[in-house]
Structures are given as C-alpha cells and as structure tokens.
Amino acid sequence: MSIDAETAFRLEEFGRLREDTGIVFIDDFDTPPPAPPAPAPVVAPTPALSDADIEAARQAGWQDGFAAAAADAAIREADARAALAARLGEVATASAQSLSRLAGEAADAIAASLHHLLAACLPDLCDQHGPREAAAMAAALLPLLTPALAVTARCAPATLPHLSALLTRQGLAGAPVTLAPDSTLAPGDLVLDWENGAARRDTRALLAGLDAALTAIGVRPRAEPVMRAEAVPAKRHERETDYV
Q1: Count of domains observed in the chain
Q2: Fewer beta carbons below 10 Å: N end or C end of the chain?
Q3: Which pLDDT band, with edges at 50, 70 and 90, does 237 fall under?
Q4: pTM
Q5: Is 103 among the domain residues?
Q6: Looking at the domain assignment, is residue 199 inside a domain?
C-alpha cells in the first residue's frame, strides 16, 4: 500500500478533528496486534451414569453406612457391658457386705436370745433335773474311787436324798463315802473330794463358759440368772391355764 502526499495531508487533517466528532484516538499501525487468547481447555464430557452404576453406588453407600453404624453400636454395647459389669460388681459387693452384716446381727440376736432363754430356764431346769444330774455323776465316778479311796460328796440339801438312794442301790452304803450338804451349791451341783483329787459339777461355771464363748464371737451375754439354793416344787401337774 502506498500513501501519496495528498493522503498524508488528509491523515494530518484527520488527526486535527475536533473532539466532538466521537473519535477518541487514532490507531497506531506500527503497534503489533495483541496475542490471541489462549484456547479454552478441552473438558471431556461426563459420561452418563447407567441404572446399574446408580444401583451399585447406592449399595456401596448403604454397606458403608451399615458398617459404620455396626461399629458404633459394638462400641456402645461394649461400653454398656463394662458399665453394667462394674455396677453389678458394686451391687454384689454392697449386697455381700449387707448380707454379712445382717447375718452377723441375726446370729448375735439368736445367740443372745438362746442365752437369755437358757438363763431364764436354768433355775427351773436345775430344780427339776439337777438332783438326777448330780446322782448320775456320782454313779459314774464313785465305783471307780471306792473302796480304795475315801470320798467326800458335797451337794445341795435337796440333792442329798438322791445321793443316799444311789449309794444304797449300788451297794456303796458301807463304803468310805461321806455325804455333806452344802447350802452354797445350787441343785444339781456336786463336789467330790478325795486324796489328791477332786471333781466338780458347777452350774455357774458352765454358764460362765457359755458367756465366755459368746463374748469371744462378739455377743454380749445377758445378766447371769439367779440360782436358787433350794429346789421348788415342779409345776408339771398344774393346769395349763396357770401358764397363760
């Protein structure tokens, strides 16, 4: 392309056009054109999902959710079992301690009641059965001691007739046996004295041994019964209404 003088004149005149013509600037043909924009990256089209793909994804999601829920449930169950076992252990320990305490209290109460019952019945038992107990003891020991040894038998006055009858029945009336009444002894008590030896049946000593056994297991015995020095008539022939 060639530009003559007239063309140059026209371009110069064109450059002096007023601003109100709407032309802002004149292109400079010496400036290289701008580089073309980079081509947009080619995005591969998303393949369409089939029904089988959707079903497979749904099954995989369900299995993953089920596995996670099962694992969480297993952890919760293990924690619950551990807490339950700990609680059951606490309850068992507390129950064992409570039962042990109650059993001890019940045993103490039973022992104390039996001791109280024995203490209440002992005077009457000695009145009714004591002389025969003393006679049974004398019947077992006197044949072993006489006639080689002289024996002194001390007993309550109420027991003396029973021992006299025993000596007569066993043929020991002429043996060296001396009967001595002792008002300090309770009915049923018997003291046999011989050279270098003695034997004694003491109701109070028996009761003291029982008290010592109860004290050893932590049971406080009741008061010692008041033993009667003389026997009283038995009430076995009285009417039943007299005991009500």
Answers
A1: 1
A2: N
A3: very low
A4: 0.46
A5: yes
A6: yes
3-class SS at 243?
A: helix
Domain coverage including residue 173 = 98-226
Q: Is the peptide bond before 41 cis (omega within 30 degrees of 0)?
A: no
Q: Helix, strand, or coil here: 236?
A: coil
**Which two three-digit tokens encode residue 69?**
């829920």
In the chain the beta strands, taken as DSSP E runs, fall at 151-155, 177-181, 190-194, 197-201
Mind listing the pLDDT tens digit for each residue in 127-150?
A: 788 888 888 888 888 888 887 888
- 238 belongs to a structural domain: no
What tokens were used for 77? Answer: 């169950």
- Alpha-carbon dihedral 154, 159, 161, 164, rounded to 10 degrees: -40
Contact 153, 177 (CB under 8 A): yes
Residue 223 CA to residue 164 CA, distance in Å, equals 35
Any idea what the CATH number is for the domain that residue 131 is in?
A: 3.30.2320.30
| Spatial separation of the C-alpha atoms in residues 238 and 37, rounded to whole Å | 137
d(CA 14, CA 12): 5
Q: pLDDT, tens digit, for every residue of 69-121? A: 888 888 988 888 888 888 888 888 888 888 888 887 887 788 777 777 777 77
Q: Is residue 64 part of a domain?
A: no
Give Cβ neighbours of residue 210 (< 8 Å, ≥ 6 apart). Answer: 115, 118, 221
Distances from the Cα of 83 to the Cα of 71, 88, 90, 226, angstroms = 18, 9, 11, 60
User: Which pair of structure tokens corresponds to residue 135?
Assistant: 């006679």
